[in-house]
Design brief:
This protein is mainly alpha-helical. About 55% of the residues lie in helices and about 10% in strands. The strands form two sheets. The chain has a two-stranded antiparallel ribbon. A two-stranded antiparallel sheet has the order 3-4. Strand 3 and strand 4 form a beta hairpin.
Length: about 150
């Protein structure tokens, strides 16, 4: 039985996985990448469009219809969280999961995390340093953002 990532148990499981990743658990990286890869098969690239925003290209979801993966009988509602997609994008060095993460981000903290990951992967170092410093000043308890800062250096 698939659980949506909106259930408390599923969110706690993702939080534990990200905690393992941040803490250096050698198996966590493969688990994150596997979940992000699974999510990428559930989303059609045509569901998104690029939007210019300052120095970064952000992505907006164009349509909200659910897509079903016949291999897993999952829908796009059974997807990783923003943090998991960001971690997977950084681990893989791939911007594609950030498209999905930007469509799921609902809070300023989540939207900033997506922009931070994009800057980490492809932005100038001084821009990333400024963005991460500002983000961590506002959200000093954001361990995933601190992990991103460590990955860039």
């Amino acid at each position: 039985m698939n659980q949506s990532n909106n259930t408390p148990d599923a969110r706690r499981a993702v939080d534990r996985l990200l905690g393992r990743l941040i803490g250096g658990d050698p198996t966590a990286e493969a688990d994150v990448l596997r979940l992000v890869e699974h999510d990428s098969r559930l989303v059609e690239p045509s569901d998104f469009r690029l939007v210019e925003a300052s120095d970064f290209r952000l992505v907006e979801r164009v349509e909200t219809t659910a897509t079903t993966d016949p291999d897993t009988s999952s829908t796009t509602q059974d997807v990783p969280t923003v943090g998991l997609l960001v971690a997977g994008a950084v681990l893989a060095g791939d911007l594609a999961p950030l498209m999905r993460a930007s469509s799921l981000a609902t809070t300023a903290r989540e939207r900033q995390l997506v922009v931070l990951a994009r800057a980490c992967l492809s932005g100038p170092a001084d821009l990333f340093d400024d963005l991460i410093r500002d983000h961590l000043a506002t959200y000093p308890d954001h361990l995933l953002a601190a992990w991103l800062a460590g990955r860039r250096n």
